[in-house]
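Lecture notes, unit on binding sites. The following record was shown on slide 14. It pairs a sequence with pyridoxal-5'-phosphate.
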Amino acid sequence: MKKGIDTSEEHALKLDEKDPLSNFRDDFYIPEDTVYLNGNSLGLLSKRAESSVLKVIDEWKELGITGWTEGETPWFFMAEILGEMISDMVGAKPEEVVSTGTTTVNIHALVSTLYRPHKGRDKILADELNFPSDKYALEGLLELKGFDTDEKLKMVPSSDGYLLDEDKIVEMMTEDVVLVHLPSVLYRSGQLLDMKYLTEEAHKRDIIIGFDCSHSAGVIPHELHGWDVDYAMWCGYKYLNGGPGSTAFLYLHERHFEKEPKLKGWFGYEKERQFELSLDFVHDKSAGGWQISSSSVLGSAPLLGSLEIIEEAGLENIRKKSRKINEYFIGLVSELLDDVEILSPERAEDRSSHVAIKHESADAISSLMREKGFITDYRPPNVIRLAFSPLYNTYREAWLTVMCIRDLIDK
Ligand SMILES: *Cc1c(COP(=O)(O)O)cnc(C)c1O
């Protein structure tokens, strides 16, 4: 579909000039001669994240063990402090979020508590397009209970391999289902699911529901508490720019605080009494109760700086730019690239911050793009994902990308 948009470079430059977030790009280290379109897999380093890590390194140097209590952000409380910092961005109460573990470990920690099978109601509903690790984790949990995963794990199918139909998901919330685990955004097509609607429908049927928000955290506002979502988790290294393997987050609705964590560990102990080192486990009545081990302080420290930037830019503004730059990119693709199909949803409100395109020579296109400095993400057999991270990508980069793809296809 041709949209008749202005395809000139001048127009791209004008959009950048009018971009209220354009200053934030200077906060980031952009790899030289590169158009970096992979912020949905690994966000870039910011100067502020760099300095918050160096700060902790210095504290370790100068304070040794005393850093746990005397650090500028005391290491012992860093997980809770980061949880509080991000709680507004995900619409949760401060005590409902903690920074801990990794995404997959957090799925284990939360689902092992909330999955309570009983006679006739013992199935988990997931979907066939979620990130594989989510499915592995759910299978592992079912196997630990001695269940046959083929029987207990129901997968919502996709009709085209890229998108999910929300009504189909609801239709599969049948009486045998006790828990639904879904992504907020499908990692391939970038489809954003309606978490509010799905939560309402699950709760009408007495089903626990949780979301893996790895591809929406930091780029889309959430109302996890307001929507009444039971649990969620997300990683720190995509749009949150926390660095490779940085500490992840978990959210647990306060109504579940009294429930017993099943992956117990000493960092989930009642915070004030943790160092009494009692052999009887009593968990903290907050999301913090679901921590397992000592905080990964060095893996968390970058988030102190990177979350500050997001807070300053404002998540609403970030979302606005993300929609606009994606709309612009999709407009250019429709206008200028004939054999390229857009796999991401058509309506802007159904998309996250990356666009997936399909071309029969996607493999070759993406490797030639890489040679020219365009870092994208190829997904076999014929899909390229391009993420526009609103804090550092520009409209001109979107324009350059389309020009580059057009040249390659023409050749
Ligand atoms: C990136 C991502 C993960 C990553 O999991 P880790 O355990 O942190 O490596 C998990 N699930 C989804 C949906 C993701 O997008």
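Take-home: Residues 102-104, 131, 133-134, 183, 187, 212, 214-215, 235, 248 surround pyridoxal-5'-phosphate (CB under 6 Å).
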